[in-house]
Amino acid sequence: METAPVVDLETLRRNCANCSLRQLCLPAGIVASDVERLDRVVKRRKPVARGEHLFRVGSGAARIYVAREGSFKTVACSADGEQQVIGFHLPGELIGLDALGHGQHRCDAIALENARVCEVPLEELHHVAAQVPGLQRQLLRVIGRSMGRDQDHLEMMSRRQANDRVMLFLHSLSQRFETLGQDGSAFALPMTREDIGSYLGLVIETVSRSFTKLQDDGVIAVRGRQVRLLQQRQIADAVHGHALH
Amino acid sequence: METAPVVDLETLRRNCANCSLRQLCLPAGIVASDVERLDRVVKRRKPVARGEHLFRVGSGAARIYVAREGSFKTVACSADGEQQVIGFHLPGELIGLDALGHGQHRCDAIALENARVCEVPLEELHHVAAQVPGLQRQLLRVIGRSMGRDQDHLEMMSRRQANDRVMLFLHSLSQRFETLGQDGSAFALPMTREDIGSYLGLVIETVSRSFTKLQDDGVIAVRGRQVRLLQQRQIADAVHGHALH
DNA sequence: CGGGAAATTGAGTACGTTCAACGTTAGTGG
DNA sequence: CCACTAACGTTGAACGTACTCAATTTCCCG
């Protein structure tokens, strides 16, 4: 138990109105009084440790989550136990939308680092959204952005050359870090090479070789999980299909 | 121009309450009086001819569409003009969600056959959804199903073997036809081999060879676009990862 | 019936996978 | 604080599958 003043500070620091992700999250574009109503249905969950599951395949979809600190991966499991990483979720990005369709999660969500999430009960969100017109729109916008990232993923998978896939991947991450107000040209990968390989449909060795190749070509600098994009122009060109050969 | 009685029949046949797709579409689970309110904002569009665009990259996202008769493909265009089929849309399935995120369509939508769509202005849908709680939920369910199909697509792309991709593709189509109340074990592909190849990340020759191989193995029977699934068990096994070797 | 697109088939090549060995990093306990 | 260990990552050589290029056949629509 804590004394009253401390609780207040904690509350203040933690609610939507004061969240650094506010612009990216559900409250964006909603007037202060309505943010308060939204805030009341958002549960702050205790931290999720690295490697811990946020939810699992088959569990009900009573809530959606927003990564608040730390990033997550979602992993689809075939019946035979083969796994595939289908998404990475940086702070401000929604997790758990996969269950909207049939009420059951189709994938596992696992924390890539020690993380923290906001938890939004769907039923209560519906109630608030019905009363706050802007929230409904914003919910669809956020869902739409999530679908856009899925489409980006698909575009990566459709590239024939492993190098192109990796460049697209780095470009996508770069943009998302910049959206978070961080440096998009130098960042730490929160995931392993194995995760990247699974996400891109490549084996780990190929990912490793691609990183090495891109470094040799002077396009990026890699050291472990630390990455710097040296020739953003070249990467952007590859993204737009003007291949380098 | 038509005489009054004919118009009435047309109207009756065309509105949501009498649509054969009702169970799959936005009205599902909404009481009759509310269906009427939804119905009032749904515009029936004049038929879309085979090969015609429903919308194009960059156009605003004022509306979403539901395929009513005939199917569609959505095609993403890289800046260099390279195209990739990112989705097929059978009757009852939503088209145009790709613009929810940023208000602009990221792909072209093209009719694969002479088709007909329902057109739903987003702004008006928001209004009705705010008043009809069930509609909001149903909209999210339909969106969720659409995301589920995207995830299925991704799972196809992640398969290493071309045969597996094609089998997953046929399985997915089969299920969707059955949802429509049609025969899931024998159907006509609405799209070309080229479309299939683009969708699966394979060249057209590989798609052709896979069809031939699957036919030689007795798994399917193909003749042009007419397909029959002979060993659904084997296909289901492949889908679940128990490869055939 | 003719023309053009769609689909099939064949041979050679390129790229990523597989299998295997080695290096490196980070987290743990003595 | 350092040694130890296991997970993570890199590099190399041989192989296999899908791609490329090219020729031919089938199908569909006017």
Automatic annotation (TrEMBL), chains A, B:
GO terms for cellular component: cytosol. Pfam families: cNMP_binding, HTH_Crp_2. Residues 160-233 form the HTH crp-type domain. Its main location: cytoplasm. Residues 51-106 form the Cyclic nucleotide-binding domain. Homodimer. This is CRP-like protein Clp. The keyword Nuclease does not apply.
